[in-house]
User: What shape does this take?
Amino acid sequence: MSDPTRPKGPKIIAISNQKGGVGKTTTTINLGAALAELGKRVLLVDLDPQGNASTGLGIDADRRETTTYELLTEEVGLGEAIQETDVENLWIIPANTDLSSADIELYSNEKRIFLMHDALRQHAIDGYGFDYVLIDCPPSLNLLTVNAMVAADSVLVPLQSEFFALEGLSQLMLSVREVRESANPNLRIEGVVMTMYDRRNNLSQLVENDARDNLGEMVFKTVIPRNVRVSEAPSYALSVLDYDSNSRGSQAYRAMAKELIARNTTVKAKVVA
Ligand SMILES: Nc1ncnc2c1ncn2[C@@H]1O[C@H](COP(=O)(O)OP(=O)(O)O)[C@@H](O)[C@H]1O
Ligand SMILES: [Mg+2]
Assistant: This one.
């Protein structure tokens, strides 16, 4: 039950696609940084045992004593798990390989699909006044991803501009439907964003046309170009916005953040109208 005395919670978005290497982590970091730059208060949750979002924002191993794993296994509370990043308005709950055993360890827990949901609803989150929580999901439709979908308001799907990109989507949509029918009837699709787009490559355009024909308005107008600055930034532990503010990658993620905010405002206006 929602508590009317509590401040309105953040919008929670699971960034998911069971394919690896499609730009989930890159989008989590840079969309998060772009929203933060616009003055939104953003929490990133690293839900991938590979911990790439944590590494990409410079959270070293010695700062990963309390991670998403301890949060899900209820060893620590939310307040202890949230850490500052070097980016203003951006916080993170990091992850490491401990999370790889969570799938099996949590299986006997009867609340196993609600652990992230319950964790993000602790009162400790109120004081931060987050506008957005972005969950970087692992490349699989496992228990961790289900936890993210049960906790989330919506799912954002990065789609690599490559052949077969659309193939895995029906499986992903099936998972969304299952979560809707079981634990989270309000789960929406936030949208699909084309990543690593190469304007000189016909294939990118074909995949884009295919996606827009099949998915219509669900596809973000903003496409994220393949841009070497985007791929270099994590090795400097920076978002691309801080690494090269004027790069095409930075501009694209800024445009995407604005589009996301505008869409959310329109949706709210429609609901009210
Ligand atoms: N727009 C982009 N331009 C260039 N390289 C990119 C872009 N987006 C992602 N990459 C690179 O592609 C690889 C996979 O991206 P990543 O975000 O880690 O995917 P996922 O989290 O889905 O596995 C990484 O090496 C990343 O740096
Ligand atoms: Mg990743």
Q: What stands out?
A: The domain at 11-260 is CATH 3.40.50.300 (Rossmann fold). DSSP finds twelve helices and seven strands in the chain. The first strand starts at residue 11 and ends at 15.
